[in-house]
Amino acid sequence: MLAVLVALGDLPTDFLHTLPGSTPQSPSTEVPVTPGNQTRRFEPSRLPARQPTGPGFPSKEFVSPRLTFTRGEVSGRDGAILVTGAIAEGDARRFSEWLEGLENPPSAFALHSPGGSVVEALKIGRIIRASGIPVVVASGASCFSACPYVLAGGLTREVSRQASVGVHQHYFGENTYLPAFLLVSDIQVGQGEVMAYLDEMGVDPMLMAKALMTPPDDIYVLLPEELEDFKLSTLLTK
Question: What is the pLDDT of residues 194-234, one digit of tens each?
């Protein structure tokens, strides 16, 4: 039975929603969340149409396949760096080399990302923690999937009430053709590493409960009070 569930997990989401007894497709991230109604459809190739504003932010709905680093003014901080795009293999090394090459450290890192590689996100989070530079999720910005683990790396984690921060289940590893028991073991090890990382960063590991209860094709958008309760945000702004 477990092997069947693993195989079903590789089927297209649209097909799964046609099966008898399947639940209706979640609304898009354009639909505001309310308490108890926080699950939205996850589309990693795009971010919500609303965008953060200010120098350095993309003018259109756009997701780069790799992280990009652009200097600008974010949340009143001149000299901040917008970190946007999907998190891909090798991005932690690119980020470290880029940071070491700066003449002056940025005033903050502003995140706007649909997530991506969990392993790379944890590495980037640790680089940020070592730097001591604050992390911001500005008004209109989105931080989904693996992106909250980058956010967790900040000693100071400033999140706007008008931003979207969301978690869900993750894939660990690329090979979906492994025997089911090995695949499940790999996932369990990965989840354990994430929980240990969150604890290391001072974030409540129970955040993973929300992630584990949300399928990979959906995203659970955290309410401002949940950001505070899980200690993912150290400062909430307008």
Answer: 999 999 999 999 999 999 999 999 999 999 999 999 999 99
Tell me the CA distances in angstroms from 99 to 93, 137, 154, 191, one per residue in order. 10, 19, 15, 28
The encoded tokens of residue 109 equal: 């890192």
Q: Is the separation of the CB atoms in 219 and 43 below 8 Å?
A: no
**What letter does residue 113 receive in the DSSP assignment?**
B
Distance CA(68)–CA(82), nearest Å, equals 8
Alpha-carbon span 197 to 118, nearest angstrom: 11
State the SS3 of 164-217.
EEEECCCCCCCCCCCCHHHHHHHHHHHHHHHHHHHHHCCCCCCHHHHHHCCCCC
> Whole-angstrom Cα distance, residue 16 to residue 11?
7
Residue pLDDT, tens place only, 97-118: 999 999 999 999 999 999 999 9
Half-sphere exposure of residue 210: CA atoms within 13 angstroms, side-chain side: 23
Buried b vs exposed e over 223-237: b needs ≥16 C-beta within 10 Å? ebebbeebebbbeeb
Contact 129, 157 (CB under 8 A): no
The better pLDDT of the pair 199, 172 is held by: 199
- How many beta carbons lie within 10 A of that of residue 107, not counting itself? 19
CB–CB of 217/138 below 8 Å? no
Residue 37's contacts (CB-CB under 8 Å, 6 or more residues apart) are none
